[in-house]
Sequence to fold (277 residues):
Amino acid sequence: MKADLHCHSNVSDGLLPPAEVAHRAADRGVELWSLTDHDEVAGLAEARAVAEARGVRFLDGAEISISWREDASFHVVGLGIAPGHPALVAGLRAIRDGRDDRARRIGAELEKVGIHGAYAGAARYAEKSSLISRAHFARFLVEKKISTDVKSVFDHYLAKGKPGYVPHEWAALEDALRWISDAGGLAVLAHPLRYRVGRDALRVFLGEFKDRGGQGIEVACGAHTPEEVHECARLARHFGLKASVASDFHGPGESYADLGMTPPLPDDLAPVWHDLI
Ligand SMILES: [Zn+2]
Ligand SMILES: [Zn+2]
Fold:
């Protein structure tokens, strides 16, 4: 089964509309697919309609931003959720409202270092989206030739310790896990080795994640090196978590991996979708 259970459309910070992402997944041979926009479920109906018309099995998903302890943040993907579940819908709306406040503060911080109009510029890139994310700021800074590509904007302007970084309080882990389970889904830790925490803290987090009902971890990640895939597999075994497959595709030219372009899952791991299809 060729699965890809993590990617984005322009409903959050991807470049393509949900229908185009769905066609691209089908064209690239994905057999089981999930659209997982940040803190938003508005693209799922369109994605599902096209996926099913193209013979691709579809799981409703969302990638939820959470804060943990003093200043760490993680992304938890909910798979197989009921998109209209009231607690989930209300929780995601609260996160999106917080994002707008964060975006205004990012714009104000960038003004201080002489980058003018960034909030309005990012909002223009987020025209089809209900939220403004750092990727939208990054596209504006590339347009203004302040950086050459999206990744270097993150490295020089938006990451922690850089001029446009603002701390932000996302959802609590227990709330996000409850929304996902109430909506009938499974919770999966996204891109485990892409957080700014040490390995010890990651393990403490995973222990809590598992204890509170988290069920899966992305192992075959498009953004991970082969060594990192092995490390994620070891974490899956150690914590008794099911394994997921994730390109984290955002758009042509902007992502490490295209749809379906993911490393193979180690044979001994239980795929997360066995409980969902
Ligand atoms: Zn993420
Ligand atoms: Zn993502």
Notes: The mean pLDDT is 95. The radius of gyration is 18 Å. Residues 6, 8, 63, 190, 248 surround zinc ion (ligand 2) (CB under 6 Å). The first helix runs from residue 18 to 27.
